[in-house]
């Protein structure tokens, strides 16, 4: 009897230690960020490598690094959070921590399950939007890696096609918010059938953009860019070749 009781007490003790370990790990994640970064984060959504995870799940990713904080109310899958804490396990490919206290929205913004850095309902009414600034938003990993990621999302093969191909392009514009989110993505000019998947890929890979800065202040910025691609005679995109920014206001 005493032996069984001893085993039960040991088991309960181990469970308590495990729970304490989870809490301590979460507290360490929060404590690593200064108060002005929007904490505490108990009611934030945790997004690890593009996927929402439970707070306790961070225990299994000790090396996760916070790289973006959205400190305003959001709605994801009909659930409201106080904000979003973005983390990555790829430390070598993680951008510097981005934070701005002004999201540009007074109401909770809606984020899609697959586009967790794209604001679907952003309101620009009475907001100043910059077209020129000292530091312009750009993908932190560089343009080549950015196009490679878009290629992966739309399912392009790394092998060259043997079919006849043609050069084409898509021009788009979007807003980079003061918290490094994207919003109001739309094509410039005529839209072609092959553009739909590419537009969706830009939304899905939207956590990568840096902030627009001028004299140390973050700005709302309208980014315009053209992506040049190769397609076959049926209009299927074969490769994303290069990217150029437009500065025509």
**H/E element sequence:** HEEEEEEEEEHEEHEEEE
- The amount of beta strand, in percent, is 25-35%
Radius of gyration: 22 Å
Question: Cα distance, first to last residue?
Answer: 81 Å
Query: Given the C-alpha coordinates, what overall shape results?
Result: globular
Protein name: TonB C-terminal domain-containing protein
Keywords: Signal
Organism: Sphingobacterium olei
What does this structure look like?
This is TonB C-terminal domain-containing protein. It comes from Sphingobacterium olei. Keywords: Signal. Helix content is 20%, strand content 34%. The protein has 249 residues and is an alpha/beta fold. Strands 5-4-8-9-11-10-14-15 form an eight-stranded mixed beta sheet, covered by helices on one side. It has a five-stranded mixed beta sheet with strand order 2-1-6-3-7, with no helix packed on it. A two-stranded antiparallel ribbon has the order 12-13. The N terminus is likely disordered. It has one domain. The chain has three helices and 15 strands. The protein starts with a helix and ends with a strand.
């Amino acid at each position: 009897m005493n032996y069984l009781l001893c085993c039960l007490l040991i088991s309960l003790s181990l469970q308590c230690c495990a729970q304490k370990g989870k809490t301590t790990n979460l507290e360490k994640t929060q404590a690593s960020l200064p108060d002005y970064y929007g904490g505490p984060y108990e009611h934030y959504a945790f997004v690890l490598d593009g996927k929402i995870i439970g707070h306790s799940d961070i225990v299994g990713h000790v090396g996760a690094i916070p790289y973006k904080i959205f400190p305003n109310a959001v709605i994801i899958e009909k659930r409201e959070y106080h904000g979003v804490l973005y983390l990555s396990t790829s430390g070598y490919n993680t951008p510097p921590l981005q934070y701005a206290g002004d999201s540009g929205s007074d109401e909770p913004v809606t984020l899609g399950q697959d586009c967790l850095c794209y604001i679907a309902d952003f309101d620009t009414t009475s907001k100043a939007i910059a077209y020129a600034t000292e530091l312009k938003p750009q993908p932190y990993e560089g343009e080549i890696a950015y196009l490679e990621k878009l290629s992966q999302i739309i399912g392009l093969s790394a092998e060259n096609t043997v079919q006849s191909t043609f050069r084409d392009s898509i021009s788009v514009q979007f807003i980079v918010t003061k918290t490094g989110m994207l919003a109001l993505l739309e094509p410039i000019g005529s839209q072609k059938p092959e553009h739909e998947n590419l537009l969706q890929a830009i939304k899905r890979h939207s956590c990568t953009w840096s902030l627009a800065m001028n004299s140390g202040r973050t700005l709302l910025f309208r980014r315009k860019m053209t992506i040049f691609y190769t397609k076959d005679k049926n209009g299927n995109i074969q490769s994303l070749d290069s990217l150029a920014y437009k500065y025509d206001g």
